[in-house]
Design brief:
The chain has 373 residues and is mainly α. It has one domain. 74% of the residues lie in helices and 0% in strands. Helix 1 packs antiparallel against helix 11. The longest helix has 36 residues. It is globular, with a radius of gyration of 21 Å.
Length: 373
């Protein structure tokens, strides 16, 4: 399959944001992760929360958009059965590897070196196992979405698998209205499934899944409409500018007025609160704006690669698989470093990114590994 260079470059940025997202949670940003240091200082909470909210507004949705886009491309060149077999290899094997190898090793390092428990690896595996999907819930959900699409495609597109739709991108007002509609649905879902609540045993946060499902569907539609290539550069700049206004002005104001003197974020997480509704709407409009903006900007300005960026792009998926192990190890090594949490995050961010990508590049040199990831 021919590489689309600017999308490969977007994937590098997205995977870097995944690493930094979980590193920010490690040092006190709101969210769940393997290793979280003690309660962060008040100096750090606000900027880390803004960073995490901005990431969450778009990066996983954009992953599903890109994944669906390439699903449609692959199905144009492969039979359904051949494609499904390749997906089971590319998604299923890493998922099993993480569940049985990376997850227990990560939790062992967390307990042994992060919390100082006197345990040995094999007795730990025998007694506690440590098996789990962790952040690979993304791959788990992607596999489910893919199978659901293949079933729908076989039922409704027989003899017409190549859907011919007009290539014109929707008007701006339709995009805004769609984002607001997704925000309202997300708000309603969060009454029952607030942010932070996982659906066991899948580890899905259903609070975000309205956007994920929508962008997976849009990824298919975008391929058949050629929307990625049709995004005008000027339009992408306007959307990116709107995102900056929402991130740098609207979000801080909402947090200041919504949190109040108690400093409690719970009202933003779900339930019948104006904060939850406002955050759900902000999240979707910001996410749509960033996705459109970044796609157009990368297509115009970042559509070339050198040997380094090719290596980074090829290693991005493996970085996603191994980054919990790397981040927990870094957290354990630097746990006694006394700094403001924000400064510690900024100091260790390049260490985390370099460690993840270098390790992934080395592992991909192992025979057969690069055929899977």
């Amino acid at each position: 399959m021919k590489r689309i260079i600017y999308i490969d470059n977007i994937r590098i940025v997205l995977i870097a944001l995944v690493v930094l997202h979980h590193l920010a949670i490690t040092f006190g940003g709101p969210g769940g992760w393997y290793y979280i240091e003690n309660k962060p200082d008040s100096f750090s909470v606000f900027p880390l929360s803004m960073f995490l909210a901005t990431n969450q507004s778009f990066f996983m949705g954009m992953f599903y958009l890109i994944s669906a886009y390439f699903t449609a491309i692959s199905l144009k060149n492969k039979s359904t059965w051949s494609f499904l077999k390749s997906r089971l290899v590319r998604l299923g094997i890493p998922l099993l590897f993480f569940y049985f190898i990376v997850s227990p090793l990560t939790i062992f390092i967390l307990l042994r070196f992060g919390y100082g428990e006197d345990i040995q690896f094999f007795p730990f595996i025998k007694e506690h196992h440590g098996f789990g999907v962790g952040p690979m819930w993304f791959v788990e959900a992607l596999l489910i979405f893919t199978v659901a699409y293949l079933i729908a495609r076989s039922l409704f597109c027989k003899g017409n698998s190549d859907i011919n739709l007009p290539k014109k991108i929707p008007k701006n007002y339709l995009i805004i209205l769609t984002a607001l509609a997704i925000g309202v649905i997300s708000f309603l879902v969060r009454i029952k499934f607030p942010l932070g609540r996982n659906l066991k045993p899948f580890e899905f946060q259903l609070a975000f899944f309205t956007q994920y499902i929508f962008f997976f569907i849009i990824g298919i539609v975008a391929y058949h409409n050629d929307w990625f290539e049709a995004i005008p550069y000027k339009k992408s700049l306007n959307w990116f500018f709107l995102a900056q206004v929402l991130i740098l002005i609207v979000l801080p104001l909402a947090m200041v007025f919504g949190i109040g003197p108690s400093g409690n974020l719970d009202t933003f997480l779900g339930g019948w609160t104006w904060q939850s509704l406002a955050y759900s709407l902000w999240e979707q409009v910001t996410g749509f704006s960033l996705i459109i903006g970044l796609t157009g900007i990368f297509k115009r300005k970042l559509n070339t690669q050198n040997e380094l960026t090719r290596q980074l792009s090829a290693s991005a998926y493996l970085v996603f698989i191994i980054h919990p192990l790397v981040l927990v190890s870094i957290g354990a090594v630097f746990k006694d470093l006394e700094l403001y949490h924000l400064l510690k995050f900024l100091l260790l961010a390049p260490v985390a990114l370099l460690s993840c990508f270098i390790l992934a590049i080395v592992i991909r040199k192992i025979p057969l590994v690069n055929r899977v990831v």
